[in-house]
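Bumping my old thread because nobody answered last time. Still need a sequence for this structure:
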């Protein structure tokens, strides 16, 4: 096997490992610290009469008042940190670091 293919396999392997590790940590961060999306009230479709909250506040902290699709509501709750932004930043940093150190591999 040529040295170029060995280096290419190494670079792709390290990139894939880091990409999956970033994905796992961002998923964990979304589950633990997820903030509501701006369209959460539209997705939730809350029943304000059973929420026991004043109409001027409209803050939903009880999950039982949502009448929308449960799967869409769960995705709307887990919007931050953004997985797309995290994977983009990882890819950009990896490309920058690997291209600046490519002479080390050759």
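Sorry it took so long. Here it is:
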């Amino acid at each position: 096997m040529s040295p170029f293919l060995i280096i290419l396999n190494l670079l792709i392997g390290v990139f894939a490992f880091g990409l999956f590790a970033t994905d796992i940590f961002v998923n964990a961060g979304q589950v633990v610290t997820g903030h509501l999306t701006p369209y959460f009230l539209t997705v939730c479709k809350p029943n304000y009469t059973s929420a026991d909250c004043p109409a001027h506040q409209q803050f939903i902290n009880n999950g039982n008042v949502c009448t929308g699709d449960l799967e869409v509501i769960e995705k709307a709750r887990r919007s931050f940190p953004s997985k797309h932004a995290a994977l983009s930043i990882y890819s950009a940093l990896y490309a920058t670091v690997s291209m600046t150190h490519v002479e080390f591999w050759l």
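The helical segments are 3-33, 40-44, 70-77, 83-100, 102-105. Let me know if any region looks off to you.
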